Amino acid sequence: MNYISTRGKSFSKSSYDTIFKGLAEDGGLFVLENMPILDWEEFLSEDFGYDEVSAMVIQQFFQDIPYEEILDMTKKAYNEKFFVKNALKIQKVGDISVMELFHGPTSAFKDFALSMLPQFMEKARGDKKVIILTATSGDTGKAALEGFKDIEGIDVVVFYPTDGVSSMQKLQMMTQEGKNVHVFAVNGNFDDAQRGVKEIFQNKEMEKWMDDRGYVLSSANSINIGRLIPQVAYYVYSYIELVRKGTIASGDFIDIVVPTGNFGNILAAYYAKEMGIPIGNFICASNENNVLSDFFQKGTYDANRSLVKTTSPSMDILVSSNLERFLYEITKDSERVAKWMEDLKENGMYSVGEEFRKEMKDFYGYYATVEESQEGIREFYEKYQYVMDPHTAVAYKCWEKFKEENKGNYPLIVSTASPYKFPEAVTEALEIHGEESHLLEETEKKTGVEIPVPLEGLKDRKILHNRIIEKEDMGKVIQEEFYGSN
Ligand SMILES: *Cc1c(COP(=O)(O)O)cnc(C)c1O
């Protein structure tokens, strides 16, 4: 299996090497030269668990890693650290199904990938010492910290923006335990933090500084193919589950509705379709930072706007890194992709033109405002006594808009976080009142939905990280952290 860069100038043969590198040398992202095809109907013949299905799917992409080796990793990832059997739950509510991806160690879907990536990295690093650098809009940071915690030979550094993560997300990171974890708040928003991390990666002096001390930098952001691929598995598994439960018949098409930020999760769904899973439409759901929904409506990606702070902070993003992989898939033309990325860098925008818009016809972009998503949480609870988090509610509202204009197939709405990660928005929507420090308990009392184990008692845990830094100082802070160590 060959991995090639979306910008055409880098190439890699080994899966572990590709994962270890993260970003390709030419600045592009690694993609597969040929998409594997999956004989998914075989999965229906036996009662395979999530550990097995995910290992089989992942192995199709990383064919030079033996199946048994991957199965060991999926067992460790999904059987020991998740709080439900088979890692995820599909809830049939009214005329939709909700895919709950928040039953992992940090109560957001990032756990699916970040329970695997550290295991890949551990194997990939050989005898090199690694520093994982991550910018987070809230959920990646915590999942990376939890995933990489106390892994030998690897340190993990997380930068989160002071503006725009929820109180629970902040608390989760500030209380993180582990010998090898480093957490900083950066004055600014997510794009500032992400830009800072990218600059550190591209800084040759920094590379030399690290090299002199025996370190290599790598990333846990969703540009890493080792993070993307484990996510394909839950789309395959969910399709099988829907058939097993009789919600759909084998071979029926389903539509996937994804609350989208960096375009990783929805891209994984697209990979599942390319592998052969019967998926009809993709509903790309944005919040008010609707760069992506505009892109699918108009064919122009325009990041020239200011970032809006919403109640779904993990989608407060203007530059969606993984879209580059999608552009490559629809064009198979790395020169063209490199040009668009150049345009984006220079002018903050690019247009794909009519010929390629045809290739994205299965993608529908919609967005929901804060008001609409709050309304979504409230309506859905009143109708079904089911509590959605604000990101999931954005997806739900976007599906309603899609349905008004299109026929569509049976919808699977992707629920990316537990509502308890966003207590301010959820309690406001459900009109739950009480002391700020008791919002979780009040919500549990009113709704009967249990507080997830990882969030229980969080407010009583010791604060271990409370440094706030300026965005210009991100590189300096890393040097201070690792100065003298070797
Ligand atoms: C990260 C995140 C998203 C966006 O996912 P992408 O893969 O970046 O598109 C949506 N919802 C939640 C809760 C998240 O943590």
Q: In brief, what are we looking at here?
A:
The chain has 20 helices and 16 strands. The chain has 486 residues and is α/β, with parallel strands linked by helices. A six-stranded mixed β-sheet has the order 4-5-15-10-11-14, with helices on both faces.
Write up what this structure looks like.
- The structure is a single chain.
- The chain is of the alpha/beta class.
- The chain has a domain at 89-105 and 226-452: Rossmann fold.
- It is 43% helix and 16% strand.
- The strands form 4 sheets. It has a 6-stranded mixed sheet, sandwiched between helices.
- The protein is globular and about 60 Å long.
- Residues 108, 110, 139, 222, 259-265, 314-315, 391, 416-417 line the site of pyridoxal-5'-phosphate (PLP).
- Residues 108, 110, 139, 222, 259-265, 314-315, 391, 416-417 line the site of pyridoxal-5'-phosphate.
What's the SSE blueprint?
Elements: E1 3-5, E2 11-12, H1 15-21, E3 30-32, H2 50-61, H3 67-80, E4 89-93, E5 96-100, H4 110-114, H5 117-124, E6 129-135, H6 139-148, E7 154-161, H7 167-174, E8 181-186, H8 190-202, H9 204-212, E9 215-219, H10 225-244, E10 254-259, H11 264-275, E11 279-286, H12 291-298, E12 300-302, H13 323-331, H14 334-347, E13 349-351, H15 354-357, E14 363-367, H16 370-384, H17 390-405, E15 410-415, H18 423-429, H19 439-447, E16 468-469, H20 474-482
Parallel strand pairs: 5-15, 6-7, 6-9, 7-8, 8-16, 10-11, 10-15, 11-14
Antiparallel strand pairs: 1-2, 1-3, 4-5, 12-13
Helix pairs in contact: 1-5, 2-3, 2-10, 10-11, 13-14, 16-17, 16-18
